Amino acid sequence: MRSAQNSTPMALFAPPAPFASNPLKTKADLAQFLTAHLDPLAAHTSPGGARIHLGHTATHYDDIAAQLEGFSRPVWGLAALLAGGGAYAGHTRWVAGLAAGTDPAGAEFWGAMRDRDQRMVECSALGFAIAVAKEQLWDPLGPAAQAHVAEWLGGMNDKAMPNTNWLWFRVFANLGLSRAGSPRFDAQRMKADMDHLDTFYIGDGWSRDGPEGVVQLDYYSSSFAIQYAQLVYSKLAQAEDPVRCEEYRNRARKFALDFVHYFDEEGRAIPFGRSLTYRFAMSSFWGALAFADVDLPAPLTWGVVKGLQLRNIRYWAKQAGAYYPDGTLTIGFCYPNQSMTENYNSPGSPYWCCKSFIALSLPETHPFWSSPEEPYPEALRGTIKALSHPLHITTNVGGHTYILSSGQQCSYPVKQGAAKYGKLAYSSAFGYSVPVGNGTLEELGGDSTLALSDDSGETWKCRRDTREARIEDGKWLRSMWYPWKDVAVETWLVPPQESAPLWHLRIHRIKTGRSLTSAEGGFALYGQGEDARPLEPSTGEAFGTFEEGGLGRAASRAGVSGIADLQGGNVSRTGKVIRTDANSNLMVARAVLPTLMAEHAGGGDENIWLVTAVFALPSIGEETGARSGWTSEWEKRPTIPRELEILIKGA
């Protein structure tokens, strides 16, 4: 393993992350980090304070709503800071903006609410702010402005809303109106919304993002929306709705024991699903647990929860590409990236991350702050866990945290949905990739997927609409995919084995009535060498790429990624390392992808069996490159489970 200090000077020449020097260990550190996010917004704020304009990229909704996003989303953090006894002189910008944005006769009026209006989303932060920081953000408004704010928020109570987590936004608006003592508070409407939201619950702490039939359990089921909202509600509505509040705390306890497996020892969360430009909002569930004073289940302690939250925020503080030079957030993930965004991501959207500042509302005496930070629990290291509700098998065996996935898809069209929900695996270290075009394999971003082409590689299809997905006996995932009417693909995903801990196994059975080309990718890996130029062929432990027969492998400062065509299938494939098009991977802008390629004749009743082993070992912390001795692990191979071997030989 190489030290980062051995990198060439020019390879490191880039503006540093603007907030990387903040240790982010104390409440004061976190408050400073929030202030560093709020300060740059002043230069982008309208004269009346109601709109924040951060860029010119468009969304499916109007630009006034986009500028409202820029105004409202930082309020998640500002309100928490003020509620916890902190101070921010610039909070008066938001007080003035509340008055200006809700004044129907004013120049900066946000516009009245309509059915399914994007403005509804932003009511959640404003309702939360009034509920927890009324003295600082509501009381200074004065009677006329208060009436305008209440009328604007209450304007959503008789409007149609999507049958999703959006209903929580109306609940939060009413929570704020209730705390303000406003006559626009609609208790009946709030109870009806709460009762309906509870129909999304499916057990063991998990809620889907919609009604029966929706199989979408991404970060909206946790930190972005549902779990977070339940926990905040359980604190704010305890007196009025004690039974439901206790139920939400019980759900959170169960959910926490699953959700912890989506985080690695360095604080990264596994990128999966949509809205990942919200970045460290992925960890806001942990702060919400503290806000709600939940009794933690073992092995979680307040020191562990504190570590999960703060390590994640520290990781993002070090990502230079997450910020423009003026300190405002970019649209993207680890760097600006429009290819991975959704049509609802405005320049202000990333500030949903401010939900993760909720721990600032807690006093220094709260055990979240008074407990020493603890590392990732020893009892949860080196584990494999099957999660029946999200249809994931999580693992951190071998120092690599990732999920095997089958069975989820967004319940409505979403940009790059196949990449966000349909890949076979998602890694906290290597992220995932999205297509940047509709032609070549290089454009596809085909990591952790089986891509198929029926036109000799002109265009490609990847798994999107997964059918019949299930976890069999807790041992592996099994699912179907039908890319064309005469093509059926059945896939088994098998987690690491004790004898080969750095590998996982994929088995595919293809029945096809047409000729196909297949390309199966491993994990995408940072694709530059020690001189910052593209990786070159090499063997052994040196940085570089390796292709031989049915093997493909790459090693770089990010670690090692490889793929092997195992004996056991009835097709011989060729190993390649593809240089994917720039900006396809969420975490690194220049990546390579170990891939297996083959041609398959169509027609007949013969099953095509592909048996694939995927190898990955990420680097650790500030070190660059995989841990020494990884080549001995590379020489190992997983074995085909006996039940599947019998199926392959008998079919």
SS-derived structural category? alpha+beta
- Residue share in helices? 25-40%
Tell me the radius of gyration.
25 Å
Number of strands: 21
Give the CATH architecture of the largest domain: Alpha/alpha barrel
Give the overall silhouette. Answer: globular
Strand order of the largest sheet: 9-10-11-12-20-17-16-15
Under the CATH scheme, which class of the largest domain? Mainly Alpha
**Can you count the helices?**
18
Describe the structure.
The protein has helices at residues 27-38, 63-72, 75-83, 91-101, 119-132, 134-137, 143-154, 167-179, 187-197, 226-236, 242-259, 284-291, 302-317, 367-370, 417-421, 441-444, 630-634, 642-650, and strands spanning 2-3, 201-203, 206-207, 384-387, 392-395, 402-405, 425-427, 450-453, 466-472, 476-484, 487-494, 503-512, 516-521, 525-526, 544-548, 551-556, 559-565, 574-579, 591-600, 608-618, 623-624. The radius of gyration is 25 Å and the shape is globular. It has 2 domains: 2-379, Glycosyltransferase; 386-650, Distorted Sandwich (Beta-galactosidase, Chain A, domain 5), CATH 2.70.98. It is 27% helix and 18% strand. This is DUF2264 domain-containing protein. Residues 26-376, 383-644 form the DUF2264 domain.
Keywords:
single chain; 651 residues; alpha+beta; Glycosyltransferase; Beta-galactosidase, Chain A, domain 5; eight-stranded antiparallel β-sheet; 21 strands; 27% helix; disordered N terminus
